[in-house]
TrEMBL record:
Binding site for heme: 69
Residues in coiled coil: none
Record's keyword terms, sorted: Heme, Iron, Metal-binding, Transport
One Pfam family this sequence matches: Bac_globin
Record lineage: Bacteria, Pseudomonadati, Bacteroidota, Sphingobacteriia, Sphingobacteriales
Cell cycle keyword on record: no
Protein name: Hemoglobin
Molecular function GO terms recorded: heme binding; metal ion binding; oxygen binding
InterPro entries linked: Globin-like_sf, Globin/Proto, Hemoglobin_trunc
CDD domains: TrHb3_P
Keyword Transport on entry: yes
Species this protein is from: Arcticibacter pallidicorallinus
Length: 125
């Protein structure tokens, strides 16, 4: 039985492991490393804040994820297959480290945000 997802440290572990795996992925890794040339020192803390806000309701995240991905899509088309892979890596990493209600919630939230993002990107009206 894995541990519950309950602290900032847990989120840091989740986010770090997730993006380690994302960067190595042959289908979506290059979008982060080559296309967007993500500055990880900047992006990772932002993602800790994002997930703390989503899961624990703590104020802290400032950003506009829909806008960021909308712009990214103009540089490199983001398609269903990319979001499917994003979700499957996220699910895998959550399940590798955590169990319990928060782990389930993290997967549900990730999934619904990903689906909404793809919908907005493909039908921007
Ligand atoms: C294939 C799918 C995706 C790709 C390729 C992608 C890629 C990116 C990239 C390149 C950035 C900008 C990083 C930077 O330079 O600072 C970013 C930011 C971000 N992404 Fe994604 N992303 C994807 C899906 C998602 C999903 C499903 C979520 C949420 C569940 C998400 C949440 C975020 C957030 C919160 C930010 C920060 C936004 C901000 O700065 O306001 N991404 N993403």
């Amino acid at each position: 039985m894995n541990k519950n997802l309950e602290t900032r440290e847990d989120i840091e572990l989740l986010v770090n492991s997730f993006y380690d795996k994302v960067q190595e992925d042959e289908l979506i890794g290059y979008i982060f490393t080559d296309v967007a040339q993500v500055n990880w020192d900047h992006h990772l803390p932002k993602m800790y804040d994002f997930w703390e806000t989503i899961l624990f309701g703590r104020k802290g995240f400032k950003g506009n994820p829909m806008e960021v991905h909308f712009k990214l899509n103009k540089v490199h088309a983001l398609e269903q297959k990319h979001f499917d892979r994003w979700k499957s890596i996220f699910f895998e990493i959550v399940d590798e480290h955590f169990s319990g209600e928060m782990a389930l919630l993290a997967k549900q939230k990730a999934s619904s945000i990903a689906d909404l993002m793809l919908l907005k990107i493909t039908r921007p009206f």
